[in-house]
Design goal:
Order of helices and strands: EHHHHEEEHEEHHHEHHHEEHHH
Strand order of the largest sheet: 1-7-6-5-4-3-2
Number of helices: 14
Low-confidence stretches: 312-316
Shape: elongated
Strand content: 5-15%
Largest sheet: 7 strands, mixed
Radius of gyration: 27 Å
Length: 316
């Protein structure tokens, strides 16, 4: 079943706001990919550009990206080429129409190759860390979940036997072409309506919302199923520092954590809260108020200022 990037993302990822610096890096890498794809139609050239695009947009410091055996491009589990691969990528040149998948028909050579590489990884390499499989011509992208390949191919005992017989020269045909046409193709034909995938095209005029969704689809959080790093969640050290700067402290009352004004002996006169309370004392309408009321007024003012700073931050 075909889904758009927006339809494929979890609710959590949909709500996440990428940092402007990260998103701009993706956009720059994407523009370069589109530019170079137009200038050279060779499959080998475009294969390398896909790896370069993903690396410069996301994975340069965290994951090695390169070929593996016959696999055009692969994203490895970490920065080492000896680590297991987590994403298999099959590339075709943009002008290739017969071997590349299409929305109307996915049972083409590119998908048959993905099945073959998946089975190799699963049963010959004993790789159980695979996350996604991608077929692309640098313009159109088909992104599959490895769990669907596991369910539809690796758990089919008859198909596994056919694959094993082929690898052990137990079939008449011994070339990968024979596997694609005689084993993979009929199997895919029988299950293709059950095979979900995410599709997007970079040839389309994309809205900003669609670009952000594509950014998220190819990100480590989705592609490698990494734990999400929500930029809206405060880092613990930053959170503690923020409380200190404001002039607050977090204490536990029963089973709950409560934020309060620092005890009198521990108050920092230079904190935002204490400075505000001191300034408010100059106003006759406030100076006569109880300390708790002054605290509430000062805290509301401080929170308002911090929220204004947050709205001017670099988040999208």
């Amino acid at each position: 079943m075909n889904q758009t990037p927006i339809q494929s993302l979890s609710n959590h990822l949909l709500k996440m706001k990428p940092l402007e610096t990260d998103y701009n890096r993706f956009i720059n890498a994407l523009c370069r990919l589109q530019e170079y794809t137009k200038t050279d139609g060779r499959e080998e050239f475009n294969k390398n550009e896909v790896g370069r695009f993903l690396s410069s947009a996301y994975y340069e410091e965290t994951n090695y990206i390169n070929i593996k055996g016959e696999i055009d491009q692969a994203i490895y589990a970490d920065t080492s080429h000896t680590s297991p691969i987590e994403v298999i990528i099959e590339t075709k040149r943009p002008a290739e129409k017969t071997e590349m998948l299409s929305i109307s028909e996915i049972n083409h050579k590119a998908l048959q190759e993905l099945v073959y590489y998946f089975m190799n990884e699963r049963f010959l390499e004993h790789n159980i860390t695979l996350k996604r499989l991608i077929a692309t011509n640098n313009v159109e992208w088909f992104v599959f979940d490895a769990r669907d390949f596991e369910r539809l191919f690796a758990q089919d005992k008859n198909f596994v036997k056919q694959f094993t017989d082929f690898k052990n020269n137990g079939t008449l045909g011994s070339s990968t072409k024979d596997f694609y046409g005689e084993i993979a193709k009929p199997k895919i034909e029988s299950i293709k309506d059950k095979l979900n995938y995410t599709y997007f095209s970079l040839a389309d005029e994309l809205s900003e919302k669609e670009k952000i969704a594509i950014y998220k689809i190819l990100s480590p959080e989705h592609l490698l199923k990494k734990p999400s790093k929500d930029v809206n969640e405060l880092n613990k050290d930053f959170y503690n520092e923020l409380l200190y700067i404001i002039g607050l402290i977090e204490v536990k009352e029963g089973s709950k954590k409560v934020i309060k004004r620092c005890p009198e002996n521990d108050r920092n006169g230079a904190s935002l809260l204490e400075s505000t309370i001191y300034q408010l004392s100059d106003y006759s309408s406030v100076s006569s108020l109880a300390d708790d009321t002054k605290f509430e007024i000062a805290l509301q003012l401080v929170i308002t200022w911090i929220n204004r700073l947050d709205r001017k931050s670099t988040r999208l």
